Amino acid sequence: MAGDSAFHRVLLKLSGEALMGGLEYGTDPARVEVIAGQVRGVSGRGVEIAVVVGAGNIYRGLAGAARGMDRATADYMGMLATVLNALTLQDALEKLGAHTRVLSAITVTEVAEPYIRRRAIRHLEKGRVVIFAAGTGNPFFTTDTAAALRALEIHADAILMGKHGTDGVYDADPAERPDARFLPEITHREAIERGLRVMDSTALSLCMDNSLPIYVFDMADERNVERIVSGERVGTLVSADASAIRESTADHATAEAGASERHDR
Predict the structure, then answer these.
(1) Quick one: pLDDT at residue 234?
(2) pLDDT tens for residues 129-160?
(3) DSSP 115
(4) Phi, psi dihedral angles at 187 (to 5 degrees)
(5) How many domains does the chain have?
(6) How many angstroms separate the first and last alpha carbons of the chain?
(7) Alpha-carbon Rg for the chain in angstroms
(8) Which residue, among 176, 196, 177, has the nearest Cα to 186 in the 3D structure?
């Protein structure tokens, strides 16, 4: 593990809406800068971090044009939109001094490297922030599924699921049910069976089958990414056995603190 961090390698999943700030659609440069600062902070601690970003901020503006369009064609439009977001985030990160690479699942060699799993892992080992663009490269699969797939391919310890407008998982939609109950911990299977909005069912099933934990949290709080990486309890933990994962993370943090204290002596 890196320093006093609870993880060695993580994948951060961002919705496109997280880049909008107060805009109806598009990209808010100030918001992107804040997110880049959070990613740079985690990378600076020695934690290897990869990012998958959605395209809701751009595709929302294209929704009218895509209405009635062939589903595969519309999905490819969405993939191209994720490339735009990946380049935007890359630029913001590099202005903060981070070393980055954009790896795309579709060929855009002028602006991004093609996705090759071993190359992605090597970039991470060298301390570079890796941004995965264009989803899985296939229509009918969401960027949630891309995040789950890439996290498993690079052997990430966890997915950090940054949400826009919610601080975790609830047993109902808080916008429709004011009495909706916040769930600090839940298993993948429970989330699927109850139809909770964590990520799409394909992505959740993939995480469940491979026991990959997901931390769902509010991206609006600038401290949250670093707090999760430090082992703090933030948002909702979705895992094969949520309580066991939480205890393991806490034990690791305690062990790191003890080792640090001994070193100081």
Answers:
(1) 94
(2) 999 999 999 999 999 999 999 999 999 999 99
(3) P
(4) -90, 160
(5) 1
(6) 21
(7) 18
(8) 196
Instruction: Flag whether 4 is in a domain.
Output: no
Instruction: Supply 242's token pair.
Output: 């949520």
- 156: number of Cβ within 10 Å: 24
Tokens standing for 182?
């916040």
The 3-state DSSP class for residue 76 equals helix
Give me the domain span that covers residue 233: 9-264
pTM here is 0.88
Q: How far is Cα 89 from Cα 34, in angstroms, rounded to an integer?
A: 10
pLDDT tens digit sequence for 29-55: 999 999 999 999 999 999 999 999 999
List C-alpha distances in Å: 139 to 54, 113, 124, 210, 263. Answer: 14, 20, 27, 23, 52
Q: Are 52 and 15 in contact (CB under 8 A)?
A: no
The two structure tokens encoding residue 163 = 């949400």
For residue 197, name the pLDDT band (cuts at 50, 70, 90): confident
**CATH at residue 163:** 3.40.1160.10
Tell me what pLDDT residue 54 has. 94
pLDDT reported for residue 252: 47
**Structural domain contains residue 36:** yes
Within-domain flag for 92: yes
Say which residues have a Cβ less than 8 Å from residue 101's Cβ, sequence separation at least 6. Answer: 113, 120, 123, 128, 129, 130, 131
Considering the domain boundaries, does residue 1 fall inside one? no
